[in-house]
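Forum > Structural Biology > Help requests

Title: Can anyone predict the 3D structure of Ferric reductase NAD binding domain-containing protein?

Hi all, first post here. I have the sequence for Ferric reductase NAD binding domain-containing protein but no way to get a structure on my laptop. I'd be grateful if someone could post the structure tokens.
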Amino acid sequence: QPSTYTRTHPPAEVENPNFLAYQHSHSPLPVRLDGPYGSSHALDTLRASDTAILVAGGSGIAVVYPLAEALLLRHHRHRSSSSCPWTTTYSRQRAAVRMLWVVHSASHKEWIPAERLRELEGAGMELVVPPPTGEAGRPDVEGLVEGWVAEGGDGDEAGEVGVVVSGPDGMNRVVRNVCARALGRGTRVRVGVEKFGW
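Reply #1:
Sure, ran it for you. Structure tokens for Ferric reductase NAD binding domain-containing protein below:
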């Protein structure tokens, strides 16, 4: 009997013999596929570093959250005999991961469920979410990132620092400048900028 296999996001596996029957009895549905986008460069840079620093401005969390998850959590999916058809377990991947997420409004924090952020913190990530800029003004992104870069890349036990930033142009520029100054001091730092906008 014909059937289809469908992969969805978030990942779920569906096998349904009715898909083909529906297709044969209805008009074609135009579909536009777009992509692929991106590369593994940002993740590769962070994985090769002793300290990973992720900086998100607003919707830039859509870039840095999956990177943090990939660094800290490994998903194992397997069939379970329990009532839940799939079980996901997590294991720690690295220790030095820090994330700064700057939001304009408190409601923006709902974009990522709090329990997902707690999972990452439980796996060892340091998370800083300052008060919303709409209420408290802009936080000292420069000072915080500069401190994290210095802590990870300066001194006798200096390691390599990987930084990925995704946010408004001004935030991206501040983080790039912090990293440029650190390079000038001899710190081993790599920076990746994920830019968005019109």
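The CA atoms of residues 92 and 122 lie 9 Å apart. The beta strands are 4-7, 13-16, 51-57, 76-79, 86-89, 97-102, 125-128, 161-166, 189-193.
Shout if anything looks off.
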